Amino acid sequence: MMTNPWHSVSPGSEGPHIVNAIIEIPKGCRAKYELDKESGLLKLDRVLYSSVYYPANYGFIPQSYCDDHDPLDILVLSQVECVPMCIIEAKVIGVMQMIDGGEADDKIIAVAANDMSVNYINDISELPPHFIDEMRHFFEEYKKLEKKTVVVEEFQNKEKAENIILKSFDDYRKIFKQS
Fold first, then answer.
1. Does the pLDDT at position 116 exceed 90?
2. Residue ranges making up the domain that contains 11
3. How many CB atoms lie within 10 A of CB 169?
4. Residue 49 maps to a domain
5. Residue 178 resides in a domain
6. Can you say which residues are annotated as belonging to the binding site for Mg(2+)?
């Protein structure tokens, strides 16, 4: 029987500071891959309608749960594009808080712990301002041609991100009745 990475992969032993991230979409990709919650496989949700590309490796934190009934999203900065379903040790540095279709949809921002080109970064305030602008622009624009609205509210620091992660772990345990 196939295991589902949302439920069977550990979120890591050093959370919420360093978490395992399961990548769904490589940096630079226009395909919107998503975990199929039943099978645990990746499915192609759609090709992005706009001519934009994911600014970082994008995926989720296993054994987490959010208000949108999905695992907590995570963007992992690295100098390389990571293949889908790759597990990355991700050092949490902040969070981008946004509203997607009227629902809160937080995106944890992290750096690949094993990538020397980024793992010295400890907080989102250390990122170049232009990169923050690129992330904001991507998420505000990528659904416009689908006639959907996304509002990026604000970028918050590592402490706020870690609190969101802890809540998502607690919510996961409540929903899936694990102690």
1. yes
2. 6-172
3. 21
4. yes
5. no
6. 68, 73, 105
For the full predicted model, state whether its pTM sits above 0.85: yes
pLDDT tens digits along 30-59 = 999 999 999 999 999 999 998 999 999 999
Count of domains observed in the chain: 1
Query: Buried (b) or exposed (e) across 131-163, using 16+ Cβ within 10 A?
Result: ebeebbebbeebbeeeeeebebeebbebebbbe
Helix (H) / strand (E) element for 7: namely helix 5-8
Q: What are phi and psi of 86, to 5 degrees?
A: -75, 140
Binding-site positions: 32, 46, 58, 68, 73, 105, 142
Task: Calculate the CA 18 to chain-centre distance.
Answer: 13
In a domain, residue 1? The reply is: no
Binding residues for substrate: 32, 46, 58, 142
Note the pLDDT of residue 178.
63
pLDDT digits over 161-177, tens only?
A: 999 999 999 999 999 98
